[in-house]
Amino acid sequence: MSFLFSSRSSKTFKPKKNIPEGSHQYELLKHAEATLGSGNLRQAVMLPEGEDLNEWIAVNTVDFFNQINMLYGTITEFCTEASCPVMSAGPRYEYHWADGTNIKKPIKCSAPKYIDYLMTWVQDQLDDETLFPSKIGV
């Protein structure tokens, strides 16, 4: 799992934010966690009455990212540069990376590298205060 702890990935594979206990965002997160375990997906994703749609989406997006980070962290040792030389979805589909900013033309890369690029890109989006403000009510 050295991939998780390389200099580039150490930024990527950490939970985005610790939502302060007692904050409004914390209450939204607790509501989401409670409804997700109910088995009723429609109820789990429904905007709670009186809540701001953008805050609800932001809290759930960050939580989803954190969950994916943890899940991926458990399988990184099984998908290495050698064992997963291409990011693919079976023999018919291959993924090439481009973010439109740093890498404009899609490049072929290993699955771990692709995931590193992807998670870094998502982390950068979540860190962008214009997209995901950290101040409540903004």
UniProtKB/TrEMBL annotation:
InterPro entries in UniProt: MOB_kinase_act_fam, MOB_kinase_act_sf
Annotated Zn(2+) binding sites: 79, 84
Keyword DNA repair (UniProt): no
SUPFAM superfamilies in UniProt: Mob1/phocein
Coiled-coil boundaries: none
GO MF annotations in UniProt: kinase activity
UniProt KW keywords: Kinase, Metal-binding, Transferase, Zinc
Keyword Mitochondrion recorded: no
Pfam families with a match to the protein in the record: Mob1_phocein (PF03637)
The family this protein is said to belong to: Belongs to the MOB1/phocein family.
PANTHER family: MPS ONE BINDER KINASE ACTIVATOR-LIKE MOB
Protein's name in the database: MOB kinase activator 1A isoform X4
